[in-house]
Design goal:
This protein is of the alpha/beta class. The chain has helices at 2-11, 34-39, 90-102, 119-127, 144-151, 161-182, and strands spanning 19-22, 46-48, 53-54, 59-62, 68-72, 75-79, 107-110, 131-135, 157-159. Helix 1 packs across helix 6 and helix 3 runs parallel beside helix 4 (119-127). The termini are far apart.
Amino acid sequence: GLDALSTLFSSLPADNGMGFVVIQHLAPDRESLVPELLARKTALPIHVAVDETLVEPNQIYIIPPNAQLTIEGGFLRVARPSQVHGLRTPIDTFFHSLADDQGPFAIGMILSGAGSDGAVGLRAVKEQGGLTIAQSAETAQFASMPNSAISTGMIDHILPVEDIAQVLIQYAKYLYDLRDGKGLDT
């Protein structure tokens, strides 16, 4: 999904008011080149997530290798996976914690990737009133993750990655208006 991530982040303005957490499937013993590669495509600062980091607007946080990432009270929690080997679902794990932590202010997004990780977690985001987005399968280099997410029936927007940034910007404005006393309690 590096192409999809690059397209998404190069389409967003540097001052977009959103914090982004990127969860990838990584080999436990392999460092990710994503931070360096994405830095060439966006003005947004990119960080490898560390425990107890506050997610701030206009920043990108990337899961480190051999880690499980969750969010509590707006802070990232990094832990070693409970399973040493076997099927891991880091995206589902993060989405569940995001739904619990951010409720209707959560946005869960599935871009190009292999497998079905994220589909179950997106359901949690949607059930808490958050926004769910999937890259359209026909535009994804690897379509099984978007297809799995779409098959849940819980996706608000199915779009080519080129169109996702505009939806995010509009939704961020909507959420800002809600938090500004016009809607949901914060």
